[in-house]
Amino acid sequence: MATKDIEDRVRNWLSGEGLEIKERDDPRADFHFLVRYPPTKHGHLFNVLSPKERNLLVISSVTQVDAGQQDEMNKHANTDPEGWEEWLHDTRLQLTRAHVDWVLHVGHGEQKPGPLQAFNLSMPTWFDGVTQNEVMQTLRRLWLSKLSLIHEIKFSYGPGVGKPGPVDDWAKGGPKPVTDSTPSTKEVETDETGGFGTGFDPSDWV
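The structure assignment produced for this chain is given below.
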């Protein structure tokens, strides 16, 4: 199926479900949409894109962890380093069992990992498997996986202070990913100022 056909179909499916769609300039993609899902004020921002020279649709979402929650994680790492390592380990297993692709941005602490600063969840679908059901179920699975981790962070490290914390990996330079920040607030705030992120490499999707 041609990329343009996929683009038109995906756009129609998303708009037909009442989702807010914004087009994004992305030199590495044939098309790149920003989509809010679910279509409510509590919806999160998702990237829906097709990397150039790939018969592939990628849906992803990045969440930045609250500064207050990061402080509590640092306290945990300092007072109980083994317990903190176990929490990170369990988080990785939880995401793997959710059958989503994931990247955890963990702070660069000295001799021990720092706090969880952000996380990126994504799923690829190759063009021969792109259907309306697959696209919507992918959004739903990623959304529920995000909620699961957000609730776990709130339960373990409190509600936060309503302000996104730092992300060491992004401070190195390059465009900042489009993120959902401060997941602890009642209404999720989003940052649409940056690109998809320097860490994204379409060749990783094999």
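Interim note for the steering committee: The chain has one domain: 3-204. The radius of gyration is 17 Å.
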